[in-house]
């Protein structure tokens, strides 16, 4: 018996843009695995500040949703994507890095 599979009108391999910046999940989320946080469809910004913006990220491994006015987050690969008063931190609700207000050191 021979089985033939035919795909009509679609590509089997999706057309995905190449990754230009990889981020790491927090250690308690996906064991710190890497994921593509900025691809060639995003505005690519060079990382010129290796120290990053001041402050530290709030560590959340779970989504603590609460009611508030919706804000469109800035997706980021490092602090240079963010305003000087924010840091590029993992967002447990969105499951990727976004610019957020930091905690002081």
UniProtKB/TrEMBL annotation:
GO (cellular component) term, any one: extracellular region
GO-annotated molecular function: peptidase inhibitor activity
Name of the featured protein: Putative crustin-like antimicrobial peptide 16
Domain WAP positions: 50-103
Entries under InterPro entries matching the protein: WAP_dom
Annotated signal sequence range: none
Any Pfam family the entry gives: WAP
Organism: Homarus americanus
Superkingdom in the source lineage: Eukaryota
